[in-house]
Amino acid sequence: MMKMRTLKKWTIYGVGLAASVAMIAMSSSRISSQKLKVKSYWVPKAKYIKAFSLEFDNAISDFFWMRLTLTYGERNFEKKATEKDWKYLVALTDLVTDLDPKFQIPYIFAGAVLTWQGDMPKDAERILLKGLKARPDDWLIPFYLGFVNFYFIGDTLKGAEYLSMAARKPGAPSYVPLLAARLRSRAGDIRTAINFLEGLLATIKDERTRKPILKRLKALRDIYMLESAVRVFKSKFNRLPRSIIELKMYGLIDSIPTEPYGGYYYIDQKTGRVWSSTDLGKKKHKSKSI
Known about the structure:
Elements: H1 2-31, H2 46-53, H3 57-72, H4 77-80, H5 83-99, H6 105-114, H7 121-134, H8 140-153, H9 156-167, H10 175-185, H11 190-201, H12 207-237, H13 244-249, E1 265-267, E2 274-276
Antiparallel strand pairs: 1-2
């Protein structure tokens, strides 16, 4: 009788594994159609995989995570990716986190890549909220939720709340509660955004993921430095400088910084604020004197 039970158990496992392998093969077959220049965006539903996978959810999750990284790792993906490509990555990230909710890296991918490069902060937020439930002791999940809400969605108060939550988690760095307090007291301040990006970079090792953040950080530091010089100029001469060149002429800056998105910085003559001609990479610029 015991042998029959064992045999039955392994038969069920075998059927489940076979079904899972078949589903993976079907997915792989559809995706391999890319080689024929016919791109497929088909992603199976997690509930159907779970119905057959038995105890193999994590292994299947690893397969689809590999599929995601191979897709994102294609040469010049960011330059040639369409909205469909990014939605495909969102669907894969959803599937991976549904099959293996405790797998941390896909949540970081959502917070760091789907936001910066995919311009999909709402999808990133939704995926990170799954991580908040699945990884209750992980400070990085609420930290990224705070970043997404503050920087991309524009909800500073909610961002501060998530940062405060992150600060209470085990292993949270000492700068997290300070950043939460700064966010509450100085919403929209450039210095706060700089601090946030510096903290974010400390959590990311992958150079490709760091690149757009470093570019934005460079631009924000430039603007912070230029606006500080504008304030000094105004206090000395009781007027706004006519251009950034004038700041250099009067020795308030050593050199005119290069705008990292291919544009230039300019001074708003009504407010004294410094802006980027590309809106920090969001639009193309037209030639104009600085």
